[in-house]
Every structure is written in C-alpha cells, then in structure tokens.
Design a protein that fits this description.
Belongs to the PPR family. P subfamily. InterPro entries: Mito_RNA-Proc/Resp, PPR_rpt, TPR-like_helical_dom_sf. Keywords: Repeat. The chain is mainly α. It contains 25 helices and no strands. It is globular.
C-alpha cells in the first residue's frame, strides 16, 4: 500500500509550492508521495523541474535512500529536465558520509552522460571524499587527472593533498615539502593547512615538529582553531607531557576558545594514565558546567583511571552516570570494573557486574571473547577462595550455558571446594564435565576426590555395621524378655 496524503492541491500547482510541501513533511516516504502526487493531480498541468527534483533527491539522500535518489536522477534525464552539478554532488557527499566512496566515484562519472560538465568544485569535492575515506591510491590518481583536465592548483586542493599525505608516517616529509612550496605556487598556507599538518605530526608522535609549526602559525597571524589546539593537546597527552597540555588548555581559554569533547577527553585520558584521576574528575565537572556532553571515550578514560587507582566506588558512580546519559557500557568497561573488584577480593560485587552484563545482553564476540573468559574464570575462582561455592557454581553453570571456556584452574578449585563442603555429587559432576572438555585432573585432584568417596563409603559401612549391631542387640533383648514372660 502507498503512503496516503490528505490535503487539497490548488488549481495551479507551482514548483515553489511543491518544494515547500516536501521540505515541510518530516517523513521522507510521505515527502516522496507528495512529489508523485504533484504530477498525478493534473496530468498535463504540472511538470517537475530542477528545484523539485533537487529537493526530493536531497531528502532521499539524507535518509540514505540512495537507490530511489538515483532512480529520480535517471528520470530527470528521461524527462529532459536540466540536471545541474549540485544534485550530483549531493548524492556523492551522501555516499561519502556512509563510507561508500566508490559509489560516489561512480555517480561523479555519470555527470558527463547527463551533459553536466564537472566544475572545479565537483573535482575538489570528489578528491576530498576519496582522501577522507582513505582511498589514497585512487585519490592521488584522481589528483593527477584533475591537473590533466586543467583544474588549477589552489589552497583548497593543496590542503586536501597535504591531508592525504598526513595519513601515513612515510609520507609526512612530502606533506611538509608541499607545505613549504605553497607560497612559491601563489598559495600561501592558511589556518586549515597548518592545522592539518600539525594534526598529522601529532598523530605520529612528531611533537617537536608540531610545536614548531604551531608557533610559526601564530607568528603568521593564522589563528589556531579548536581542532588544532585539541590535536596538539592530544599529542602532548599521548607523550605524557600533561602539564604542557594543561597550559595549552589555559592558553586556548584565554584566546576565547571553548574546548570541545575531544579536548577534554584527551586531557582526562592523559591525567588518568598519569594517576591523576582527581584532576580528571574536576575537568569532568568543568566540562559538564560548560554544557559540553561527555562521550564514551570520556567515560572510558575516567573509569580506567579510577579503577587503576583503586577508587572503585567512584568508577561505579561514573558508570551509572554514563548509563543515565543513555550510553551503554561495553565489555571493556565492565571488565575493568570487575577486574578492579577482584584485585581487592570483592568477588561478590564482581559477580554482580557479571550478572548485569548478561542482563544488558553484552555477549562475547570475536573481539571480546578472551576478556569474557578471563573475567568469568577470575570471579569463579575468587568466589571459591571466599568459600562461596554455591554462588561460584551458579556462575559456572551460566558460563557453560553461554559456552564461555572454563579454565582447568577453575575446574580444579570448584572440585576442591565441593570436596571440602562434602558435596561429592557436584564434585563428581565437575570432574565429569572437565573430562568432556578435554581437561585431565592432576593426580592430586584424583586422589582428593577418591579419598573423599572412600571416606564417605567407610563412614557409610560403619553406620550400617553399627545399625546392624544395634538391631541385633534389640532383637536379643526382645527374645530374652519373651523367654522370661513364659
């Protein structure tokens, strides 16, 4: 069934009216229905033009409905409607946004089929998409093609080229070379050029060079952006120059710039790695007071730092705060908190967080498998050392249900706990499942289990012998009484 639209068209439908209705409709399927109804209402009275086609194609691209968008592009050609480059660029950018650069390239290649000659803007847009999506070989080929077809070098094209060269440590020198050549080509570097180069140098640990370019940038009246400051702060934190990074934060604020979530998160990560989680917590409060919303990286850094310093209750508070914000902790965060509680022998609390992971459906996958195995076995073993074999057994059963590997040390400590508790039925079950998993108990464990069974058998036999003797004595006493009665 099609989407129903309930409104009355005017007697003369205009392009501006259709554009307004499509923009006003929040539901993209209904917007498409409006587009179709405009021509269906008066069969010969209205024809779509560049503006109406453009607005609906933009809506479809925004909703990642690329198939219908390209169908409309073909329909424009069939209806001999003027197809301008902004429609093609809208689709290309959409494909770039969802990391489909080859589809963007394919659509770019269709432009000439529509008698639409790509302008310098189209070439630059496509070049930027290829670089952003790490299609570097294709990007460099495309750049050479741009030069061949006469697209003139500009600050914008050189900035994108430098960005491409900053993606790999091996091409950083080439990026610096082009940067130094820019004034000779009549393209003096701008703030974006400096920022791109500084970001690339910081990314590969070349802090000394990055700082030189940062100072040069300020001398040439190229104001560093928030992104440039943040890149340098992140680089300084990664190389453990925390105090220098904090000084840079103050300089940034004094220049009237508000740090963003990346700036704060980088600093908090650096502080936590330097065992200064109290200062990181202060930054969190500053960040929130400035209406800058923490993200997963912010919370992860804090939780890791607090756990490392043994401040587990504060780590749990941050975890709760994170959940209240609507962010779902991952296996790594739970693992850090569980390991922290295990380190201070609080295995019951650790087990509670394992239960919470199950309730939140945080299941093992290829990347987190070894983490799940490690923390589950750690908690089961810890519970056994705390003589909580009942809780340990429940967790063990949960592990087997979810096919989480049980380590041989876990099998052994469970068996010993049950032998110690006198629960030989569970001890025998553990050994049985241990053998099924291909683990062979050591000689000492066999001896312990067999000894327990032997002792239980001897006790049973002694009880039975005692009962027999008592019954025999009672029977003899009964016969004596009967004899005396006669």
């Amino acid at each position: 069934m099609g989407t129903k639209i309930a409104f009355k068209w005017s007697k003369k439908i205009t392009s501006s009216q259709v554009v307004h209705l499509i923009k006003a409709e929040r539901n993209v399927d209904k917007a498409l229905a409006i587009f179709d109804l405009a021509t269906a209402e008066y069969a010969n009275g209205f024809r779509h033009d560049h503006s109406t086609f453009g607005v609906i194609i933009n809506r479809l691209v925004s909703a990642n409905k690329f198939g219908p968008a390209e169908d409309l592009l073909d329909r424009m050609k069939e209806e001999k409607c003027d197809v301008r480059e902004d429609i093609f660029l809208s689709i290309c950018r959409g494909y770039g946004r969802v990391h489909r650069p080859l589809d963007a390239m394919r659509v770019f290649g269709k432009m000439k089929d529509f008698q639409c000659e790509p302008s310098k803007r189209s070439y630059i847009t496509m070049f930027d998409i290829l670089v952003d999506e790490n299609q570097l070989k294709l990007a460099f080929r495309f750049y050479r093609h741009m030069r061949e077809v006469g697209v003139q070098t500009s600050v914008v094209t050189l900035n994108i080229l430098i960005k491409a060269l900053c993606k790999n440590s091996g091409t950083l020198d080439s990026a610096i070379h082009i940067f130094r050549e820019m004034p000779n080509r009549g393209c003096p570097p701008d703030s974006y050029t400096y920022g791109t180069l500084i970001n690339g140098l910081c990314k590969f640990g070349k802090l000394t060079d990055a700082k030189v370019f940062f100072e040069e940038m300020k001398m040439r009246d190229c104001s560093p952006s928030v992104i440039t400051y943040s890149s340098l702060i992140h680089g300084l934190c990664q190389s453990n120059n925390i105090n220098e990074a904090l000084d840079l934060l103050e300089e940034m604020k004094n220049n009237g710039m508000e740090p963003n979530v990346f700036t704060y998160s980088s600093l908090m990560d650096g502080l936590c790695k330097d065992s200064r989680s109290s200062k990181a917590m202060e930054l969190l409060e500053t960040m929130v007071s400035k209406r800058c919303k923490p993200n997963m990286i912010t919370y992860s850094s804090l939780i890791h730092g607090l756990c490392k310093e043994g401040r587990l209750h504060q780590a749990v508070e941050i975890l709760d705060r994170m959940k209240l914000q609507g962010l779902q902790p991952d296996a790594g965060l739970y693992g850090k908190i569980i390991s922290g509680f295990c380190d201070v022998n609080k295995f019951e609390e650790a087990a509670r967080f394992l239960d919470e992971m199950v309730l939140n459906r945080i299941l093992p996958n290829r990347l987190t498998w070894s983490l799940h195995v490690r923390i589950h076995n750690m908690v089961v073993q810890g519970l056994c050392t705390k003589s909580d074999s009942s809780r340990a057994f429940k967790l063990y059963l949960s592990m087997r249900t979810r096919a989480i590997s049980v380590e041989i040390a876990t099998f052994e400590i469970l068996m010993k706990s049950f032998v110690k508790d006198g629960d030989l039925h569970k001890a025998a079950r553990i050994v049985d499942e241990m053998l099924i998993d291909g683990c062979t108990p050591k000689e000492g464990e066999w001896s312990m289990l067999l000894g327990a069974f032997w002792n239980q058998t001897m006790v049973q036999e002694a009880v039975e012998l005692f009962q027999a003797e008592v019954m025999s004595e009672l029977a003899e006493a009964d016969i004596t009484i009967q004899d005396e009665a006669f």
